[in-house]
Design a protein that fits this description.
175 residues, 8-stranded antiparallel β-barrel, 50% strand
Amino acid sequence: MATEIEAKFKIDNVDEIKQKVKLLGAVLKGTKQQIDTYYNHPVKKEFQGQPTYLRIRTTDGKSKTAMHYKLKNYEWEELETSLEDGDILRKIFENLGFSVDVEIVKKRETWEVPNGEIVLDAVDGLGNFMEIEVDSKEKLEHYCDKLELDLKNNKLQDTSYADLLKAKQRGDGSE
């Protein structure tokens, strides 16, 4: 179980932000294709009154399942575990009444920084984003300052990719 401090920003110029990330001394850990399948709970949509997400993530043929729920601004609880067989868990979810809510396909580039990581995501149907994931709000503010990003800026996304894509598909939201 881990608590994450994270902020997500819509990125207009990927090359420019990548240069800024490199100037931080970040080390490229790798680039992977990920498929995140989010599920609807058959009864409730929230956990303890907060946004909650249940997903299976498949990367390079390996799957993990996770439950995320928001604790407060920028802070999320993440319960995640590796799976021997993601297809079996999909079948279990289906048999329990869970249905697929939305599927997110993205190319994720991960950069390691002290006390965290910065990821650059190219999300099918949504565009480019950057997430800063660290272990404290102070470190989040530090990296935002170094990358010339404002946590109050309108480019900050406080919405999951799943919710952004569903809003776009409904035609009731902007990226």
